[in-house]
Q: What sequence folds into this?
């Protein structure tokens, strides 16, 4: 699904009814235990993330139970707690925010739900013990390919170990770029993925895509909705 002004309006009512109450409920839970939950804050601030959450997780939040789920770069939000309570749910997150408080939040959170090893702090590439398991669903929401450009590598690594992959993918306009400085003082100019790169990726996995008819149908009239020139789509693949 393309996250456009139209799709946001189309899903506004159901998202307000289903997702917003969960964001608020777990915000109180996190506050009560003095746990920082940055991803919950983002869902609170940006309604479009709630629409994405409805699209990607609603069956897992309200209908299905006891699935074996791995989330890559899950952060900490209402989704973490709700999914951990309903499913055999694990998260791999690099936690690269320098603030130790986020690490402590994760640990505190682990204690509160009384399940150990829910969160693995690492780059997803280095998790052999997670990779050796088989999952019903592997999810990566708001990670590829702008935060992490290794989308193809991720697919090759996890596809053999799951029945389904759910992704939200971000892309930028054709000429977008940014500059970063390495530890060695070198300036790198990074071009984030644009729509043609996303298109190439989807085509390379076309046979697995669920609901193909909705994947591209909105593209022609799509407007960029975020000031930062970030656009978002969601996709599911079955293997
Ligand atoms: C933009 S946030 C999205 C969080 C959450 N999925 C959401 O949609 O609100 C990206 C998350 O991915 C994690 N992350 C970034 N690079 C990662 C990597 N290489 N391996 C694992 N997690 C990573 C970050 O720590 C952060 O929690």
A:
């Amino acid at each position: 699904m393309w996250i456009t002004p139209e799709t946001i309006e189309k899903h506004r009512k159901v998202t307000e009814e289903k997702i917003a109450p969960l964001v608020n409920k777990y915000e109180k839970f996190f506050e009560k235990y003095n746990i920082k939950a940055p991803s919950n804050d983002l869902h609170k601030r940006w309604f479009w993330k709630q629409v994405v959450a409805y699209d990607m997780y609603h069956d897992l939040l309200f209908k299905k139970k006891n699935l074996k789920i791995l989330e890559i770069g899950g952060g900490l939000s209402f989704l973490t707690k709700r999914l951990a309570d309903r499913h055999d749910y694990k998260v791999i997150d690099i936690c690269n925010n320098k603030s130790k408080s986020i690490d402590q939040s994760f640990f505190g959170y682990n204690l509160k739900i009384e399940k150990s090893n829910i969160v693995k702090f690492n780059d997803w590439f280095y998790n052999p013990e997670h990779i050796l398991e088989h999952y019903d669903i592997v999810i990566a929401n708001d990670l590829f390919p702008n935060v992490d450009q290794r989308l193809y590598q991720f697919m090759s690594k996890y596809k053999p170990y799951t029945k389904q992959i759910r992704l939200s993918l971000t892309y930028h306009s054709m000429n977008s770029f940014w500059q970063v400085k390495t530890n060695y003082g070198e300036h790198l100019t990074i071009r984030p993925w644009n729509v043609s790169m996303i298109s190439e990726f989807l085509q390379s996995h076309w046979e697995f895509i669920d609901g193909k008819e909705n994947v591209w149908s909105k593209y022609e009239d799509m407007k960029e909705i975020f000031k930062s020139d970030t656009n978002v789509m969601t996709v599911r693949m079955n293997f």
